Amino acid sequence: MTGGLHPPAGDAGRWRRQLDRVGQGKADPGQSELRARGFHPCLPLTPTELAADAMACAAAGAVALHVHPCDMQGEETLDPDAAGAAVAAVRRAVPGLQVSVSTGEWIDHDDQRRLHRIRAWGRLPPAARPDAATVNLSERSAPQVIASLAKAGIGLEAGLGSVADADRLMGLGLMLRLGLDDVAELPDGTAAADNAVLIAAGMRL
Fold first, then answer.
1. Strand 64-67 to 132-136 pairing
2. SS3 call for 149
3. By the 8 A CB rule, do 50 and 89 touch?
4. Is 144 helix (H, G, I), strand (E, B) or coil?
5. From CA 78, how far away is CA 83, in angstroms rounded?
6. How far is CA 24 from the centre of its chain?
7. Helix %, strand %, coil % for the chain, to 5?
8. Of 28, 150, 170, 195, whose CB has the highest number of CB atoms within 10 Å?
9. What digits encode the pLDDT tens for the residues 80-132?
């Protein structure tokens, strides 16, 4: 899970330095790919874990959340039932916060099946339907994914894969996403205890 923050006004330089740190370690098209549980002991995977982490992140200042729904084996999936369960659990825990999910091609390499499942999200009950989904614009099927999201009535969250893209995002004053999916270190180089600690550190920058 990652939490969305509004960068503090007048301090974009410090945010950019933190983004530089993230970009040095991971600036490929799959930058939103789900980490394995071993990456961090507090990385949430199940709906119950996601809900608990959502409450902690909201308390730390997150105004939106990005989740990676998983199947019963803990593998990331686009399956509508799994996506709906994850989104519904988070929404019950933190009503009113935007919830987005991933569409990355690493989740399902069968383009037709991937697009079919994304379109099926539009048939989920409102409480289980994602508000938005990330599309990595460097992926070959990005135009088709964007069209599928539009057909499902789900918003678009652009996946950016470079520091230059991050600079553009900062210039537009849009929301910055931050969490264990992307980085496990605090600005001072120490390990973050969990997602909520990352969010709190981001709010202080």
1. unpaired
2. helix
3. yes
4. helix
5. 6
6. 19
7. 45, 15, 40
8. 195
9. 999 999 999 999 999 999 999 999 999 999 999 999 999 999 999 999 999 99
Helix (H, G, I), strand (E, B) or coil at 170: helix
Strands (E), 44-184: 64-67, 98-102, 132-136, 155-159, 176-179
Rounded distance between C-alpha atoms, residue 47 and residue 82, angstroms: 9
The model's pTM is 0.68
Tokens representing 85?
A: 């369960």
Residue burial 2-29, b: 16+ Cβ < 10 Å; e: rest? bbbbebeeeebeebbebbeebbeeebeb
Q: How far, in Å, CA of 94 to CA of 60, rounded?
A: 12
d(CA 15, CA 67): 22
Q: Tokens 């509004």 map to which residue?
A: 6
H helix or E strand, kind and range, residue 2: strand 2-5
Q: What is the CA radius of gyration of the chain?
A: 16
